[in-house]
């Protein structure tokens, strides 16, 4: 591509036009197809849909220390049934994964892991926090583990 130097007041406008022609500009809403909404209207719709909730994600590892065997699927399922479900009977989501983390000795551990997601209304956050911390402490105590990761995300939820 050839470079052209223009030294008129319109140089900035021409440069912007050249960039738009080269890389494309924003598409008009009408050309995006049916069902497409703008960011502003999506934000407005989201603000009006659902109720304020907290989505808590817990990250459970299954590897153990000192040569002990990993936590089995059956052991983990029993923990969910006996400990988690009674505290969150309305529902939960469980995903299996592979994770890694650095332990207190600086070693990198790779292990099968689970991500558990529970959602609850913001107004229940204080009471649910006690349940979540109980779950985390018990899992670590039962299996002699260092930690269960936790992430809390505020969201708008509708069922």
UniProtKB/TrEMBL annotation:
It comes from the Bacteria. Keywords: Signal. Pfam families: DUF3574. InterPro entries: DUF3574. Residues 1-27 form the signal peptide. This is DUF3574 domain-containing protein.
């Amino acid at each position: 591509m050839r470079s052209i130097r223009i030294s008129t007041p319109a140089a900035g406008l021409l440069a912007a036009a050249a960039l738009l022609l080269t890389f494309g500009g924003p598409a008009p809403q009408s050309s995006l197809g049916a069902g497409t909404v703008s960011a502003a209207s999506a934000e407005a719709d989201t603000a009006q849909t659902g109720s304020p909730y907290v989505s808590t994600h817990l990250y459970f590892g299954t590897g153990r220390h000192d040569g002990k065997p990993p936590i089995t699927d059956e052991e983990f399922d029993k923990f969910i049934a006996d400990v988690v479900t009674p505290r969150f009977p309305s529902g939960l989501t469980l995903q299996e994964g592979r994770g890694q983390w650095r332990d207190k000795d600086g070693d990198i551990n790779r292990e099968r892991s689970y991500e558990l997601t529970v959602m609850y209304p913001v107004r229940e956050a204080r009471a649910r926090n006690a349940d979540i911390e109980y779950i985390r402490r018990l899992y670590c105590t039962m299996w002699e583990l260092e930690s269960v990761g936790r992430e809390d995300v505020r969201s708008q939820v509708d069922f």
